[in-house]
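User: what does the whole thing look like in 3D?
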Amino acid sequence: MPIKKRGTGLTAVADAWQLADIDVTASYPIRPYTAVMAEVAKRIANGQMKCEMVHGEGEHAQFSIAHGASMAGARATTGSSGVGVTYAFETYSPIAGGRCPIQALIGDRTLDPPGDFGSEHTDCLTLRDNGWIYGWAENAQEALDNSLLCFRIGEDPEIMLPQIVAMDGYFVTHISQDYVMPDQAQVDKFLPPFKPEFRLDVNKPVIMGPQIEPEMGPPLEWDRNVVMERVKELIPKATAEFNKIFGAKYAPFVDEYMTDDADMVFLLQGAHAVTCRSAIKYLREAGYKVGMCRLRWIRPFPDAALQQILPKFKVVGVIDTNTSYGAAGGGGVLLVETRASVSEVANKPIIQGFTSGLGGETITHEEFFKMADMMKQTLDAGKIIQSSTWVNFNDYDKAAIEVKAAWEQAAPSTK
Amino acid sequence: MTLAVAIDANMREITVWTRGVTLAKEARDVATLMAKAGGVEGLYVQSFDNYVDLPDRINVACKSYARLSPEPIETYYEYENYHPDVVVVTEETMVKGHNILEGCKPGTVVVINTARDPQKLLKYISPKEKLANVKAIATIDANALGMNVMLTFDGTEGAGDDTTIGAGVGAAIAGAVAKATGYAKLESLLKVAENKDAVKLGWDKVTVLAL
Amino acid sequence: MPKAYKQVPFAAIVKSPTVNNQGMVTGNWRYLRPVVDKGLCTECKMCWISCPDATVNYSKDDGISFNLEFCKGCGVCSNVCPVGAINRVPELDFED
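Assistant: Here's the predicted 3D structure for the full assembly of 722 residues, as structure tokens:
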């Protein structure tokens, strides 16, 4: 029987790992990832999980241990946050290029400075070019579900790619909420055991990760590219099957909210969608025809889905909870990718960027109202007013202009 | 634009001040018990630790929070209780040197775990200008009720707490909070706490000084 | 909840404190205050050398005193005192 539980995104992923019967997990503490290793250790001690837990001496070792375990045929997991994610950076391409479908839990965290441990998507987004499959969960339930979905997609013999279950640090990783832990029988139906075609086996010896010639590089990379395109086809199928078995209602790529008659939409990913929905309710009452599109995946990027969905609207406000300094258009990663994905589409909407929710701050109702206000001005003008806006710093709504001087004083760009 | 809307207008916020490590578990229990008791009574609830306090330092000031609302909580993903209705102080000395009344709403109830005369503690409480918002100060000498203090890191950092909830002084303080505020019935609290005698004693022995 | 950002200098570079770090006041961690009994104190300075936070002061004129703005009340001074001259008194027994 599925069990109703109250817990965090971290306990939910520990539940998923328990249900997926992982063989190896590699750990190293860093907020907000830490509790998942505490949970797994506890469950191993209590006899609830049979799993080898290896403690690395740092994140680079941690991901390498999971890499090695996966080569030996184990269903292996690991995870980290913030600067831990970037410390392990060297390992990401070899793991994906070696086609080892390990799973990492990343509770995102701001990179230093400011040495902040609050949520920001920048750490995990730096991995986007390596061939890992991932997207952000907005709550504990989705974290659990994404973990199972990721195993299923990543371990598919036609795919064999590593995955990340990403979630907003603190918001999803630390605030307890209700979720349902599915039944083992459901999981067994959805997720077959991990049986890779090749593994390190003394009876059938192979060499993994040998030195290759330059001429062999591009074909290998082409293969990784082809497989990533194949993930785009597998996601809708796997999601549909997941929904059927677990009684869930996930959209394959883009979760839409109040978009049927919307002129303007917020486009974002992760936990801030929760406050966004609440803010939209008030905005609707105030006469704003506004909705929300939440991305379920960042890699592969849901370009085909956005090409279908976005032309319905007049203005799209992309909310970046990350930084990409000097990026095209001045926003973050999401703005660039969203604009690129619909660049060739006729009657594409005006796409403007907002940067908000950095350094772990909540995007408040007031800020959503302010963004809606600026999108309304864009809508009325019929053209872009400001390519990208840092909320609270260079807003162009009326109230903001009045306090602009104060903000400039608070964050001097030159000295 | 400032949309003049009252978000979570009926939500009540309980902030529990405590000392890192030494009393962190008991304070978390106070918040957890109040939230759980609210849940028993059909409210929408939430309880969580402050994320910024770095509570792994012995005796550092840190906070646990509970929220109770008759409607679904809309500011679910906010870091802190910015406008507490109830301020609980699990270690009496904390009235000194900490702005425990920061942001408190009119009608705030302060609950202190102390054997001292609340009148004499008033002079320490800050910020001073918020004292006008305080409706009552309740005191409970939970330490004298013979309960233990549990030391555990389980349940911190977003992990589940598999130890018992409300076995020690936290249960007695929760009993006092429930009675002084009326936010939970005694029966609801008894249902969710491990040490029912402690809850009962806290409920019975609390003294409330109206200001 | 409207946000209030703090004023940040260039690259968050700040002047180093030379005596006290006002950005990290720890006196409010304390619930027992060390009090020295000058009659018993032999000025051996064991407490002075043992304090992990360097909050014990010594001067020829005034003897041992404590920097209460930063003393966390850990009690090491009281423990190491060979003559039992340092008492730990509840903080709320003091007016200040």
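In plain terms: Chain C has a mean pLDDT of 92. The longest helix of chain C spans residues 46-50.
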